[in-house]
């Protein structure tokens, strides 16, 4: 079992399978060239699998595939299948911008994927085009429907930015409720790659928007990064607020980048490389590195202190 020095059990790993993406979201990588990551630097699926077997044997119960955009890496469903065959009880989830879900949802479900988190920042076509720098709303909506149709668990994620989509909080909530899925509103996290004019719309402001139309109560917190609330009709929604003091208290996760860096916290730069050990077939060394990264996991991020991170969300997977 992996326990960090603050007594948190680490049983969840988020794996970025590529830093590349077909979108250029304003809050993530608005100015990044389309084709910058040399492919030979990436861990192959087989190499990722070798490492994840070690992590699963050490007690990891949940793997989330993310990116960049995980669905642009070829044969992603085959990778899901490798994990599923190794660990029938593993929870396998994926975070996606949704664009390729109409084509891939069924294959992913058959390969053994349990759930998808789909990013949806606006229901207005022009706005999505502005935020993602891609004509994408129709494909995202079709992707949500397809994922539901094939029986994947679905959650929606919306990053709320002041004056960009902050007037859509209630619309997004009602859309998600209509589909019967949970939505989580994410506070914009300041980082040096984002479009510099972006302003956070705080969790308090998001709740105030919802409060203009609905009454809700807060639910007891579990180890999810979100705080959950319930409307009077029973519908549940969440807010992810990394700026809050207690955000990291129950953190149970670490991250692996596509290039083989193991990162203890989304905010932090301290990372250790597992690629060399895996390429040398030295899985004992890979296990030692995993244990060391868990041991060195920081107590909390520094967004609550008003700092900006140099972390590239498209490398760490958000
Ligand atoms: N491409 C996929 C997607 O967009 O869902 C997966 C990778 S993305 C980096 C993972 C999550 O991070 C998304 O929900 C995205 O909205 C969120 N994200 C990216 N940059 C962010 C930022 N600066 N603040 C808050 N959330 C961010
Ligand atoms: Fe791509 Fe996701 Fe980043 Fe948007 S948030 S640019 S979809 S990786």
Q: How would you sum up this structure, described in words?
A:
It is a single chain. The protein has 318 residues and is of the alpha/beta class. The chain has one domain: Aldolase class I (TIM Barrel, Alpha-Beta Barrel). Helices cover 31% and strands 18% of the residues. The protein has helices spanning 45-57, 76-86, 101-111, 125-132, 137-149, 169-179, 203-211, 275-279, 283-295, 313-316, and strands spanning 12-16, 62-66, 91-96, 115-119, 153-160, 182-187, 216-218, 226-231, 236-240, 253-256, 261-263, 272-273. It has a 12-stranded mixed beta sheet with strand order 7-8-9-6-5-4-3-2-1-10-11-12. The longest helix is centred in the N-terminal third of the chain and has 13 residues, at 45-57. The radius of gyration is 19 Å and the shape is globular. Residues 21, 27-28, 66-67, 69, 95-97, 119, 157, 159, 186, 188-189, 191, 194, 313-314, 317-318 line the site of S-adenosylmethionine (SAM).
Can you summarize this structure?
The protein has about 325 residues and is an alpha/beta fold. The protein has 10 helices and 12 strands. Helices cover about 30% and strands about 20% of the residues.
Give the second-level CATH assignment, the architecture: Alpha-Beta Barrel
Count of all domains: 1
C-alpha end-to-end distance = 25 Å
Instruction: Compute the number of helices.
Output: 10
- CATH class, named Alpha Beta
Low-confidence stretches: none
Major β-sheet strand ordering: 7-8-9-6-5-4-3-2-1-10-11-12
Give the radius of gyration.
19 Å
Shape: globular
Largest sheet: 12 strands, mixed
Determine the CATH superfamily.
Aldolase class I
> What percentage of residues falls in helices of 4 or more residues?
25-40%
What average pLDDT do the residues reach?
90
* Secondary-structure element string: EHEHEHEHHEHEHEEEEEEHHH
Share of residues in strands: 15-25%
* Ligand identities: S-adenosylmethionine, iron/sulfur cluster
What do we call the CATH topology? TIM Barrel
């Amino acid at each position: 079992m992996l326990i960090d020095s603050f007594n948190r059990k680490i049983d969840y790993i988020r794996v970025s399978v590529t830093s590349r993406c077909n979108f250029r979201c304003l809050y993530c990588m608005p100015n990044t060239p389309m084709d910058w990551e040399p492919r030979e630097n990436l861990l192959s699926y087989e190499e990722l699998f070798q490492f994840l077997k070690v992590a699963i044997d050490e007690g990891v119960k949940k793997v989330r595939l993310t990116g960049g955009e995980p669905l642009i890496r070829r044969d992603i469903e085959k990778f899901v299948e490798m994990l599923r065959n190794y660990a029938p009880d593993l929870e396998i989830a994926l975070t996606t911008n949704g664009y390729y879900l109409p084509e891939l949802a069924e294959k992913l479900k058959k390969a053994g994927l349990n759930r998808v988190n789909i990013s949806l920042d606006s229901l207005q076509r022009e706005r999505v085009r502005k935020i993602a720098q891609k004509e994408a709303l129709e494909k995202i909506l079709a992707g949500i429907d397809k994922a539901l149709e094939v029986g994947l668990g679905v959650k929606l994620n919306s990053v709320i930015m002041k004056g960009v989509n902050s007037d859509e909080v209630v619309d997004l909530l009602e859309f998600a409720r209509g589909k019967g899925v949970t939505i989580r509103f994410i506070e914009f996290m300041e980082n040096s790659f984002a479009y510099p004019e972006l302003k956070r719309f705080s969790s308090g402001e998001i709740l105030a928007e919802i409060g203009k139309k609905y009454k809700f109560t807060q639910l007891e917190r579990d180890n999810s990064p979100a705080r959950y609330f319930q409307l009077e009709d029973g519908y549940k929604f969440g807010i992810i607020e990394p700026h809050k003091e207690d955000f990291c208290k129950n953190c149970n996760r670490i991250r692996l980048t596509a290039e083989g860096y193991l990162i203890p916290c989304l905010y932090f730069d301290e990372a250790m490389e597992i690629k060399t050990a895996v390429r040398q077939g030295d899985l004992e060394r890979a296990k030692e590195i995993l244990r060391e990264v868990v041991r060195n996991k920081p107590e909390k991020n520094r967004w609550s202190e008003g700092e900006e991170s140099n972390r590239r969300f498209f490398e760490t997977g958000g």
